[in-house]
User: Fold this.
Amino acid sequence: MAVQSGGDYQLLDSGAMRKLERIGPYLLVRPSLQAIWQPRLIDSDWQRADGVYERGADEDGGRWQFSHKVNREFEVLFGNLQFHIKLTNFGHMGLFAEQLDNWNWMRDAIRARMKHTNDRNLYVLNLFGYTGGSTLACSQAGAHCVHLDAARGVVDWARKNAELSGLTDRPIRWLVDDAVKFVKREERRGHTYQAIILDPPSFGRGPKGEVFKIEDDLAPLLQACRSLLADDALFVLYSCHTPGFTPITLRNQLDIVVGGRGGVVEAGEMTIPEQQPNAARARLLPSGVYARWLAAT
Assistant:
């Protein structure tokens, strides 16, 4: 699954475990451990970068090296959404370009369902919502959304993106909570959703110090998500960036949530194509894996 050009972001080249990206006004180099091949562009093209991110030796992150004055916060348009970009000390920017195809897939599914049901309300739960791309895509299509993340600063960042994208007045519920605890509470309350989105981290901490380890906590979370799927559920999107998790792994795990239902399950790699007009083919940079289920029409 490869994204297409979506606005103020382009992957220009990759190789030697790095990637060269154009984002907004800047040319940036960041690590990419999957890019174990040779770059196509010459060294001087890479040396034009405004900033280079180098990983640190511990969990405190790394550091940016800038060739001149760079504004570390700015806005970009990508995938019909407006994003506030931050060049953080961990190398993340708040934009996950590999998710663009998933955003379009969800928009299409929601619009088709709402057209078929005369715009009946459709409720989406986005766990581990990060900076909000999936939430905002679903909201654009007309869904009511619950956006949840354990980090208050990240939820505030997502709300900023909603404001920039003109979605402030849309029905989005913003929550700072532990995903596992929230899902189990929703299960006890008998609440259900027509769609569930999750992109769990390998390791994370909740707002009260709760520890999430994907090898221990994912299966119980998926079991609880099964109980939250409404009888008229539309889709489940599960994506992951944990090393060792393959499309087959995710497909098998997704069965915990949707096993026994009709519909279609797809699984594959999320990729970003290099934007090199003179290349014989667009080389793809693998950027995580996904599995998604769509109800039968």
In short: Helices lie at 43-46, 100-116, 133-140, 152-164, 179-189, 214-228, 247-258.
